[in-house]
Design brief:
The protein has about 160 residues and is mainly α. The protein has one domain: Recoverin, domain 1. The protein has 6 helices and 2 strands. A hairpin with a 2-residue loop joins strand 1 and strand 2. Helix 4 packs antiparallel against helix 5 and helix 5 crosses helix 6. The longest helix is centred in the N-terminal third of the chain and has 40 residues. It is globular. The protein starts with a helix and ends in a 14-residue tail after the last helix. About 15% of the residues are buried. The C terminus is likely disordered.
Length: about 160
């Protein structure tokens, strides 16, 4: 009888883990499909997306990059909406943070969570969704640049 109970427990554990893994795979596939769809919807390809380095050195502020910047912001808004993380111009902060924690290494979760919350708060009043999303992305990159890893446990202060 003990062996039967043990086998049942192992089977339940294995099936629950398989279900979790299957859900993670489905989420990953949906994210990839959403990314591809949003690139197409916004007339972008991977080379049209700003890299973190380009944002760090303010390439997006150079004359002639207004349309690329707008498209990048609209791409980000599109992905957030398809992932059910944005409704209208309102970004669902708790859901964004939860997703961030799912996708981020353990050692970066706390600092990135603080940075994202800070930037979401600072940009909350922007009413145009493309501009809002790009401004949040820019804020996150610039804050990360100013906040080296040795300061991970320090408080991030919102400046307004």
């Amino acid at each position: 009888m003990k062996h039967l109970v043990l086998c049942a427990c192992v089977l339940i554990f294995a099936l629950s883990n398989a279900t979790e893994i299957q859900q993670e795979i489905q989420n990953e596939i949906k994210l990839r499909l959403d990314l591809e769809a949003c690139l197409i919807e916004n007339g972008l390809n991977n080379s049209g997306l700003y890299s973190m380095n380009e944002v760090s050195i303010n390439v997006h502020t150079k004359p002639g990059n207004e349309e690329r910047t707008r498209k990048n912001g609209c791409f980000m808004a599109c992905v957030l909406k398809k992932q059910n993380l944005m409704e209208g111009t309102n970004i669902k902060e708790d859901e964004v943070i939860a997703r961030l924690y799912e996708l981020t290494r353990q050692d970066l979760k706390v600092i990135l969570g603080k940075i994202v919350r800070k930037c979401l708060e600072e940009k909350r009043d922007i009413t145009q969704e493309c501009a809002k999303c790009f401004s949040i992305f820019e804020c996150i990159i610039q804050t990360m640049d100013k906040f080296p890893r040795e300061h991970e446990h320090e408080e991030i202060v919102t400046t307004e």
